[in-house]
Predict the structure.
Amino acid sequence: MKKYINKITKALTIAVVVFGAHSCGDAYLEDVQVYNIDSENYFNSESDYYDALVGAYDLLQSTYVNAILGEIASDNTLCGGESATDVIGWQQIDDMVHTPVNSNLRDVWNWMYAGVSRTNFIMEFQDKTDFEGREALIAETRFLRAYYYFELVKWFGPVPLKESRFQIGDETSIPRSPVADVYALIEKDLQYAVANLTYTAPQAGRATKGSAQALLGKAYLYQEKYGEATTVFDNLIEMGPYDLVEDYEMLWEAEGENSIEAVFEVQYTDVEGAGFDCLQCSEGNVAIGFSGIRNYTGPLFSSGFSFNVPTQESYDAFEDADLRKDIAILDIDAWAAQEGATFGTGYEHTGYFNRKYIPRKRSSEAAGDLNLTNPGNYRAIRFADVLLMAAEAYNTGGISDTKAQEYLNRVRRRAYGVDDNSVDITDSGSNLTSAIARERRLELMGEGHRFFDLVRTGDGSRIPGFVEGKHNIFPIPIEEIQFANGNWSQNPNY
C-alpha cells in the first residue's frame, strides 16, 4: 500500500467527524460534500471494503509527527530548526513548556482520531456483505484501530472510547475512558487480529499476524502485564518469519525497507507531491525532510530543515566499537571533512543529525516539495525492538533473567559485529534492567520510542524540564476541552 487511493478518503470523510477534526481542513470537507456516495449505502462489495481499508491505512502516514516528537520530547535530541520560533509547538515540547494551546499536539489528537473513525466506519458495517477473506480484512481493520488507540492512550492517557462512528455531540456525552478500558479494547482487537491473520501480508506494509502479536505484546508491556507479554513475544520470536538483518547500515537505506526485520512498517513514497497546507496529505515521510541537514551539498544526502538534532551526550552514549554509532548519528563535521561536503547551521546546532531518517539523494520521479515528499518507510516495529521488549518483560517481571540475557545479547552481537559471547551481558536483576534500558536507547536511537520508554519506566527525570506527574502524558488540546463543554477535565497540572 505504498500509494493510497484518494477517492476513498473522500467517501470516508462523510462519515468521519471526530470532535471537530477531519483530514485536510474545511476546503477539503466542502469538496467532499459534493461526492454522491451515501455512507449508509456503502459496503456492497469486497472492493468497497478494500477501498475503505485503504482509507484506514492512509492515516498511518500522518504518524510522522508522532515519531519525530517522540525523539524531540526525550533526552535524545533537541528541537533545532531555523530559530527558537520555528515550529513553536515542537520547541515548547522540547523545552517541556507545552500547554493545551499547542497546534502540533492537536495534530496528533486529530489525526489519530481520524484513523480511529475510519476503522470504526468499517467495523460498524462489518457484517453487511459477506465475501471470501472478510475475516482477514476485519482483522487488519482491528489492528489499525488498536494502533491508533495505542498512540492516543500513550500520548494523552484517558481518551474518549467508541467502537462505532463518532457523531457530532458525542464530545458532550461520551466520557474520557480510563486507561485500563482503552487497553482492554486494544487487547481485544489485537487478539482477534492474531487469530485471523497470517505471517504473510498480501501487500507490503499491510498488517500481519506478527504485527498484531508485536503490538499486543507491547500493550501488555506498557501495562506491566509481564507474563502475558513474554508469552506473546516468545510465540512471535519462535514461530514468526523475522530475524535481524546482518548489515545494520543497510537497514536504513532503500534496500532495507520491508526486510526480514520489518514486523510493521509505515509505507512512504515520493511520487506524489504535497505542500505545507496539508502535511498529513503527503505520501512522503515529512519527518525526514524536517530532520535533514540545513543547506547541504555533497554526496549521499540532501538538504532539510535541521530539526531533531541529536545531542553530544546521545552520540557519546555509544561505545566506539559499537557499529551503530555512526549509522544512527551523523557527525556532520567528520563527514564534511571526509567527503568534501558543505552545510549550514540552524538553531541549537549540535553537529549531529539523525542519520536513520535524513533525506537521501532523490530519483528523477520525485514530485512536489522535496522536503515534504521524502521516501523512507518508518520502521514502526522492528524485530530488534521485539527482542528487547521481550528481554525487558522477562527481567522486569522477575520471570527469567537468563531468557532476558539471551534476547538482549542477540541484539548486542549484531551491534558489535561478533558471533561469539565477547560482548554479552551477564548481569542480572536491576543491573540487567539498566543494561536493557541502555540497549533500547542505543538500538532504537532516532526512532521515536525514547520519550515513552523513559516515562513508563519511571525515568522521566532524565529529560530536561520534565515534571513527574505532569509531563508523563500530554495535555488534551484546548479546543477539545471547549467542545466537550465541561464533560472532560484537563490532564493534571496543565
Notes: The chain has a mean pLDDT of 92.
